[in-house]
Amino acid sequence: MTLAAAIRSLPDGFTFGTATSSYQIEGNSFGGCGQSHWDDFCRQDGRVANGENGAVACAHHHHWASDLNLVADAGFDAYRFSFSWPRLLPETHQGINPDGIDFYDRLIDGMLARNLRPFATLHHWDLPSRLANNGGWQKRDTANYFADYTDLVMRHFGDRLAAVVPINEPWCVAWLSHYWGHHAPGLTSLAATAKAMHHVQLAHGLSVAVMREHGHKQVGAVLNKEFPQPIDDSPSAVAKAELFDGIYNRWFEDSIFKGRYPEDVLALFDGQMPGNFEADMELIAAPLDWVGVNYYTRSLIKPDAREPHIGFECVRGDLPKTDMGWEIYPEGLAYFLKRLAADYCPNLPIYVTENGMANKDMMVDGAVNDVERIEFLTAHLEVVVGLVAEGLPIQGYFVWSLLDNFEWSYGYDKRFGIVHVDYETQKRTPKASWHAFQQSLKPE
Ligand code: FCB
User: Fold this and answer.
1) Which residues are registered as beta bridge partners of 314?
2) Cα(258)–Cα(261) distance, rounded to whole angstroms?
3) Are residues 84 and 126 in contact, defined by beta-carbon separation less than 8 angstroms?
4) Is beta strand 367-368 parallel, antiparallel or unpaired with respect to 363-364?
5) How far, CA to CA in Å, does 144 sit from each of 74, 200, 394?
6) 167 and 206 in contact (C-beta within 8 Å)?
7) Global pTM value
8) Which residue's CA is the nearest one to ligand 1's atom 9?
9) Measured between alpha carbons, how far is residue 231 from residues 10, 237, 303, 304 in Å?
């Protein structure tokens, strides 16, 4: 199937969009943005490739209008972006940055003027440094401050947002950042992780409640999913893959859709969960209007007796890989979409809110022919086509990402965009994948 055929097979009204996030593109040296713990993390030796940071990124703070033109000109009808908490509240919990308000006013009005539906995330990882320095997600206070920040966003922008979610990929906020230490704040502590795993979910629940107070009717959650493949048939590999699934996946959907945490992961956190966390579960499980899945790859789970807490490591297998070293495994997307619909939220609208690949793109004679990306996106869209035909309520698909951008600890090394960015000149060059979408979504 070609990309065009996949797109044509989806029903009228199916949403196609691209996704970005604030720290990765805006350039936080512009417009009075405050410091986030990503700025602090980038300053630490060895944390980010080449010591890079998001100070300039794609200078989207300046180029937002032409960037939105790229979304609209390709024929997409939605744009997923995130608000930067430190841009809106740079210094204190109440001190609003007028430039930040103006920026998002222009951006959202710019989407509406181009018939792009704004899909907003309130937190895509740029936690204000003042909160991080005070314990960050280990502290309940951070969840309360997040509720106040949600109120600010909803007051100023809520009625113009087609869809809202509190937090992008809570697993990354909690586990990846506090246990594996790959993202800010770079901790490797099980005790810190247990607190963060709950407080990020509490923040979701508190934020959803505020969104409801403002009467929002398209409130969702965006969860990242990675398929856990036992490295072999041994009982220990199978058991560890199950634990990985609990940590990475079930922790989030069990709490949001069933109001409980999985027993296997609670046993891992034994004695380290925040006191009386059970009292928050009803709030965390408040009904949603939709759920988003971010999907990239699978992990092979290999038992490792030297690992002190979880007893496994994640390795990569033999399938073809993207430039991240991530195996290309569209079957995993099918697995999670089916499991969500069958076991967690029958009939709830589902969106694929991120899917895409880093590729060693080459600019040749002013063009980037990223055929690998077109194949990757087509293979994953084919999964969606098949499941929609089976009756799953999948209503949209967002490509990660519109632009090459700051890929967290990989800095600017990894290119995920359907539009190439020259970081010296900030010139944008639509890649072949962008043109393929345009030909499919906006045929002459
Ligand atoms: C996701 C993140 C996004 C980007 C992609 C590659 O986990 O949400 O910011 O880094 O991975």
Assistant:
1) 301
2) 8
3) yes
4) antiparallel
5) 40, 11, 32
6) no
7) 0.98
8) 21
9) 35, 6, 8, 11
Q: Is 407 in the pocket of ligand 1 (CB under 6 A)?
A: yes
Q: Which one, of 149, 277, 147, 169, lies nearest residue 222 by Cα?
A: 169
Distance CA 270, CA 297 (A): 30
Is 9 a residue whose pLDDT tops 90? yes
Adjacent-strand bridge partners of 321: 327
Tens-digit pLDDT profile for residues 233-262 = 999 999 999 999 999 999 999 999 999 999
CA 276 – ligand 1 centroid, Å: 32
354 catalytically annotated = yes
Ligand 1 neighbourhood includes 82 CB (under 6 angstroms): no
Residue 57: burial class (beta carbons within 10 Å; 0-12, 13-18, 19+): buried
Q: Which residues contact 262 (CB under 8 A, 6 or more apart)?
A: 246, 250, 251, 254
Which is the catalytic residue, given 26, 226, 327, 354? Answer: 354
Q: For residue 150, what is the enclosing H or E element?
A: helix 140-157
pLDDT (tens digit per residue) in 126-179:
999 999 999 999 999 999 999 999 999 999 999 999 999 999 999 999 999 999
Phi, psi of 254 (to 5 degrees): -65, -45
327 CB within 6 A, ligand 1: no
